[in-house]
Specification:
By secondary structure, this protein is an all-alpha fold. The protein has helices at 2-17, 27-49, 54-75, 82-100.
């Protein structure tokens, strides 16, 4: 689960940097963004190699990443509307259900 947490944090950092790259025309943010996405996929692969099913790992990675990106955006002054908040509640509920259901591996 630590690998998945690192993958999520790396993806959130990369996605937060994405607009700052200005279409990948600014070198340092572009390097940070690419490194973040590279680390995210690397640690996601380690999470699945350590026994977590790909579907579970990917669902949690996406869901938690979306919620964290929304929180970062809110901290930067881009507040979500009521529909977005409701959607985020559904995402959080889904991630909780996936975690409660255990790790399915076939």
């Amino acid at each position: 689960m630590i690998y998945l947490a690192i993958a999520i944090i790396s993806e959130v950092i990369a996605t937060t940097l994405l607009p700052v790259t200005n279409g990948f025309t600014k070198l340092l943010p572009s390097i940070g963004c690419a490194a973040g996405y590279g680390a995210a996929f690397y640690y996601l692969s380690l999470a699945t190699a350590s026994g977590m099913s790909s579907s579970t790992a990917y669902a949690i990675w996406c869901g938690v990443g979306i919620v964290l990106i929304a929180l970062v955006q809110a901290l930067l002054g881009k507040l979500p509307n009521a529909q977005t908040i409701l959607g985020l509640v559904f995402i959080i509920s889904g991630v909780m259900l996936i975690n409660l259901g255990g790790n399915v591996s076939h």
